[in-house]
Amino acid sequence: MPVLRNQIDRRMIPGGNHNLSSAPSGDPRLDAILVPPMNIRKARPRDVDALVGLWIEFMDFHTALDSGFVRAVDAADRWAAYITERIEDCCFAVLVAEIDGEVVGYVVATEIQYPPITTIRSYGFLQEIAVTEKHRKRGIGRRLFEAAEQWLLDRGVSRIEVKVDVLNPDSRAFWESAGFAPHTETLIKHCPVTKDEGRLKLEGDPRGTALRPIRDKNEKP
At the N or C end, where does the chain have fewer CB atoms within 10 A? Predict the structure, then answer.
């Protein structure tokens, strides 16, 4: 899974007030098709149900590309709790696109600190972005990205990263059109693992491999 990186040139960001509403293209015909009247704002706790619905659609779409996106039985409840925390976390931006009172898309962005060994102290990371299917290809994703980018710029970030599934050419084309370019590549190896009497054993290895289990955060050691 490649990581695309965007080096932000602050000279390209115009001064003045940056509101988060959709910006017109200048062509009324294109505006009617590509830029529906929309409001982009910070998410609120009351948006969580709508966000969960969008997230489920996002996950199920990607499941067809990568089995790693298959949802666990209680995934929706866990993600609802997670996104509720992120909405209240000042280190995250959870922004939604709203049309006629309906939340039709969202983006989650954050700032991540580098180890204190480089001149660049931090970078922006776009954790996820999703637009419901019936509203795709209308410029909503771009407006969400621009709002998230502005939030990161306001925090002094000059580099933004996003992960893109190599099996999703539309996503890659979207990010490249927004100024991102390939930078690093994540390689994944799927290793079949079976459980055997409290030990984790790699198939084909009769000795087994003792591993420390991953505990739930609420489970006592």
Answer: C
